[in-house]
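To: structure desk
From: M.T.
Subject: fold request, one chain
Message: Could you run this one when you get a chance? Sequence is below, nothing fancy, just the single chain.
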Amino acid sequence: MTTSSVPTTSGTAGKRSVLREAAFLRLWSGTTASGLATWALPFILGLAVLDRTLTPAGLGIVLATRTVGFLVAVPVGGVLADRHSRRKVVLWAGLAATVATPVIAAGLGRSVALMAAAATVVGAGQGACRPAFQALTAEVVDGPRRQQANAAMTFAVRVTTLIAPAGTALLATVFGTGTLLIGTGLLWLAAALVPPPGSAPAHQRRTRAPFVTEFTDGVREARRHPWFLAGLAALTAVIATGYSATNVALPLVSRDNYGTEAVLAGALTGYTAGALAGALIIARWRPRAQGWVALAALAGYGFAPLSLLLAPHPAVVIAAYVLAGMGIELFNVPWFTATQREIEPDKLARVSSLDFLLSYGLAPVGLALIAPAIDTFGAQPVLVACTLACFLVPTLAALVPGARHFSGKSTGASPHE
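Reply: Done. Structure tokens follow.
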């Protein structure tokens, strides 16, 4: 089985830092620009609610339609990125979001329907980019350096979420929300134009099958790797429960148990700081049983809802969120790297789209259900369920064949590594 589309071409290639490679820096810049644009849109629209150019209901509609566009485009983007050049899929997806973003600005204060339609296109661009970027990384970066590359990308995302709110709020004192929205369009333009070309493997010249058939082939490839299905189930469970607890229960606990929003702010900052630390650690750490370590780290997210359940000293809550953030990145980076290594190159984008579709696509479902669940059953039973899910599902996933190394091979090593 071929497990990498770009083999190492020299004895020193795996030793040289990927941060010194121009092609990777272009890829890193493009993915960072898309991540920043994705993050900035809801924040800027939130500012529009504050200045009364958009109602809270309008904000909900626009963000919901963006999510719909994302969910529809993720599987389509996965199929297209396996059919065609991954670079071209990134280009056209980024350009679609670039063109649609000013339309959102034009509808601000005038037409929520226009904003919602444009947001659907932006979400579609975002969704199509995700699996294409994952597959393009496997083409641009050789196997031994992909873990470092994935860590660098996730580190950039976390830095963005840490410093961007203050930066955006500062820019809002000078520019209007419409101008800031157009600025996100420029970020999408960078995401479309900056990334380098990939290796254009021969599989992209094959005879095309119907869309459903090709997507089903990707699902079949995912099922061929039990460790992937188990890891995806664990990630989905943690995001749908622990992530939802963070976004819904944490503000309530901060207000009701501690009487201040400082715990909320401290926990969210601690989460990001932990994620940054996790990305730095996993950039160089290569544990022998990387799958077990990654799943154990993912289970560490359970400390977040557990801390809300026990309501200890605020410092303990913040420490729990530091552990949760660190655990997410100690899982994410090896998970992405293993997927790029183990999945057949001609099906990588489709399998990656399945990953994003389930893990991130189900997050809004968790968010939608947890608030009514708290109203019906109370916060404590819901937090107990979230805690158990975060601890137990990754533990069960670790028992699946191949989970120890995130590999179907006994050692977890790639032929190119």
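Reply (cont.): Residues 220 and 351 are 9 Å apart (CA to CA). Let me know if you need anything else for the meeting.
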